[in-house]
Amino acid sequence: MKSLFSLILVLLMATNTYAVTKVNGAGATFPYPMYSKWFSEYNKNNKDVQFNYQSIGSGGGIRQLIKQTVDFGASDAPMKERDMKKAAWPVKHIPTVLGAVSVAYNLEVDSNLNLDGETLSAIFLGDISKWNDGRIQKLNPSVKLPNKDILVVRRADGSGTTSIFSDYLSTVSTKWESKVGRGKSLKWPVGIGSKGNEGVTATVKQTEGSIGYVELAYALKNNLPTVALKNKAGEFQKPSVKGVSLSAASLKKDAKVTASIVDAAGKGVYPISAFTYILLPVKEETVQLKEVKKFLQWALTKGQDMTEELHYAPLPTSLAAKMLEEIK
What we know:
39% helix; 11 strands; D-Maltodextrin-Binding Protein, domain 2; 19% strand; eight-stranded mixed beta sheet; 328 residues; alpha/beta
């Protein structure tokens, strides 16, 4: 009798279970802290859908989307025309949030460091190799800088964060633009490579004298000091949600959503700011694609209220509204 009761109970439980739709995505590490939070919160009220997002870098996300091994991709760098042509379907760029690429460092000094674009590019070109170089000292006259080698830490994988960072350096330094240029993967003059924002953060944190570029949330979570960068208004600005939002305000109404906003004009602007994108294939709607669209509608409305606590900036209201129409 007991075994019969157990069997009936199992059958009743089975009839009350629901199928879970699994949605796979991959790409940028830049927005991963935000996406991780979003997927967790979204799942609380949508238990019939499960998002599996692999934080493998923008380049990896684009490759996976082209190979059709994921339902959506994610990238901080807009897809190039050649990659768009490789895709089986047209791809729509949906900006989700804005973030700051911070310049994090590991150095025992008694004050926060200031740098300008030219000096930062000289460090990553290898033209400046000591922390007490006169060009750094001039920007930090009250700081006692040590006679210590600088270790540049950069990405080893194809990276949207690298694309944003190199876009900024190319904008502010003609020498960087001519010698290295822009891109997700670069021929770096100096430094050691680490995988993902996670890898660069860990290497900088473990290595005294190092400097690297990471999304702001990673630097803050790991208590790494960040450089105050000189903006077009002549101010030294540390990365912040407000500084990123002011950069976004520089975007013209008729500009493409993939337009660069690095080195934007205006007071209070943080100069290495950027959008990050979900890459949405435009094709016959599958169950998974339908769920991605539903998630994006939530992320562009309720999800925007969660951005600042994780040190991202919400989309301008008008842009979020425009993207909702695009998704529909």
